[in-house]
Design goal:
The chain has helices spanning 15-29, 57-67, 75-99, 117-130, 154-163, 178-188, 215-218, 241-252, 288-298, 325-330, 346-354, 364-370, 396-411, 413-430, 433-443; strands spanning 2-6, 33-38, 46-48, 104-107, 133-138, 172-175, 193-194, 225-230, 260-261, 267-268, 273-278, 302-305, 310-311, 315-317, 320-324, 334-337, 358-360, 378-379, 385-386, 392-393. It is α/β, with parallel strands linked by helices. The protein has 2 domains: 2-195, 3-Layer(aba) Sandwich (Rossmann fold); 212-431, 3-Layer(aba) Sandwich (Rossmann fold). Helix 1 (15-29) packs across helix 15, helix 4 crosses helix 5 and helix 8 (241-252) packs across helix 13.
Length: 445
């Protein structure tokens, strides 16, 4: 069959883009032809509709008008503008569906998150007009986000009910965790299939090579630095400040680490330093990035936030070397994953494959679907309080317990090896590409 995966963007380092690549590979291995419909170019399989772009100015403006405050439109003109943009999207989609003889379309989050009513409406109308089958891949639902809690007009409110996701068309629904499956049934009366995020555990292990051998120096780092890697996007719900708190506490007791041998033979001396390296795209709200920088400076934590040197794949841009996201894992010593909310957890799977120990906040989906598998990690607990700046923090006792585990992972090579090998095998058992392939075989039969 000819299958189209559609999203705001493809080929980026956000979780949805990464998961789409896995679906594409799995579906192609099952003999299907797979195309991308998105707002940005990626490769020869991508067909661009500009209105789909994640950073499309009109779409961003309309989202603000729908969920924040009516400033540039009144209720009637907002509805008319949304319908006009939707009409353009609908016409372009119908053209591509007919041109490429698409059999099934797979909307990724477009009928779930409610970020864009024009896109959802245009997509819905294209599906109705063509009668094409749809398999909706839901990563996050709008009711999980405060942003969508106060629609600015009756049309917006009705759109949330009608389109996210649609209930009057025969569609298949895929969710990525058990909590989403439960909520979709309760809220919308729709049944769904759980397809968790996965990773290709059979690929060659990421290692240092001629290309990434200068990765540390590109970020102003060297072997003196113990790197805590935050490979996610820099957005508020990632709660990166929790890792800043951990490192700040470790800095306060730095004397206890002096002259000790790290897991790889390096000696932690007076020149050694713990570093939090953030390489993901900056997409936070309410000046989140600036707050992180200010907070880290206040606590004397070395924080490097630079998304410009990392992309989905290695490449040269204007003569500058760009590393893949996977290159970042090679030189990291431990993975920072303090998210207080995740639909599933791509960075968790990446950390398993990279054979790196991890710091994890036990967000609700982690507790419901992942914890029982038996993974070992440095826990930040499952409770956090918010301060006046909107940053979140864990209890001091929780931070202390987390650091106790980190100490073992960094300074005891035997414990570290036991943990990362065990986690790798569990990841391979529960979240492999083969698991995805088997699930998709049933869904797309």
């Amino acid at each position: 069959m000819n299958i189209a995966l559609i999203h705001f963007r493809v080929g980026e380092t956000d979780g949805v883009s990464l998961e789409m690549d896995k679906w594409k590979n799995a579906l192609e291995s099952l003999g299907h032809n797979v195309f991308y419909f998105a707002g940005n170019t990626y490769d020869s399989s991508t067909y661009v509709i500009e209105e789909l772009a994640f950073d499309n100015p009109t779409d961003l403006l309309l989202a603000d008008e729908c969920y924040d405050k009516l400033i540039n439109f009144n209720e009637t003109s907002l509805e008319n503008k949304i319908k006009a943009v939707a009409k353009s999207i609908k016409e372009q989609l119908i053209h591509l569906i007919n041109q490429l003889k698409i059999d099934i379309i797979v909307p990724n989050n477009l009928f779930a998150l409610a970020r864009s009513i024009p896109i959802a409406l245009g997509l819905y109308e294209a599906i109705c007009a063509t009668g094409i089958k749809a398999v909706n891949h839901h990563h996050d639902f709008y009711w999980e986000r405060i942003r969508y809690a106060n629609p600015t007009s009756a049309f917006v409110k009705n759109s949330l009910e009608k389109l996210f996701p649609p209930r009057d068309q025969v569609m298949k629904h895929v969710v990525i965790n058990s909590l989403a499956k439960r909520d979709l049934k309760i809220r919308k009366g729709l049944n769904s299939t759980i397809v968790p995020n996965v990773f290709d555990f059979s690929q060659p292990i990421w290692e240092k090579d001629d290309y990434n051998c200068d990765f540390k120096s590109a970020f102003g780092l060297d072997d003196r630095h113990v790197i805590f890697l935050q490979a996610t996007r820099v957005v508020n719900r990632k709660a990166i400040e929790l890792s800043i708190d951990v490192i700040a506490k470790m800095n306060q007791q730095k004397e206890r680490y002096l002259h000790r041998k790290l897991y790889d033979g390096r000696i932690f001396d007076t020149n050694s330093e713990f570093v939090l390296l953030c390489v993901g795209m900056h997409e936070g709200t309410n000046r989140y990035e600036e707050k992180l920088k200010s907070y880290a400076e206040k606590l004397n934590v070395k924080l490097i936030m630079d998304p410009t040197k990392i992309h989905h794949t290695r490449k040269m841009i204007h003569g500058n070397k760009i590393y893949s996201l996977w290159d970042a894992y090679v030189d990291s010593d431990i993975i920072s994953y303090p998210s207080i909310y995740e639909g599933f957890g791509n960075q968790f799977l990446e950390g398993l494959f990279a054979k790196k120990p991890m710091i994890i906040f036990e967000y609700s989906v982690f507790q419901a679907d992942i914890m029982s598998k038996g993974f070992e990690y440095a826990s930040l607990g499952n409770q956090a309080s918010e301060d006046a700046m909107g940053l979140v923090h864990a209890e001091a006792s929780v931070i202390d317990a987390c650091i106790t585990s980190i100490d073992q992972y960094l300074f005891d090579s035997e414990i570290r090896k036991h943990v990362i090998d065990k986690n790798f095998e569990l990841g391979k058992k529960y979240y492999s590409q083969e698991t995805l392939k088997n699930l998709l075989k049933e869904i797309f039969q």
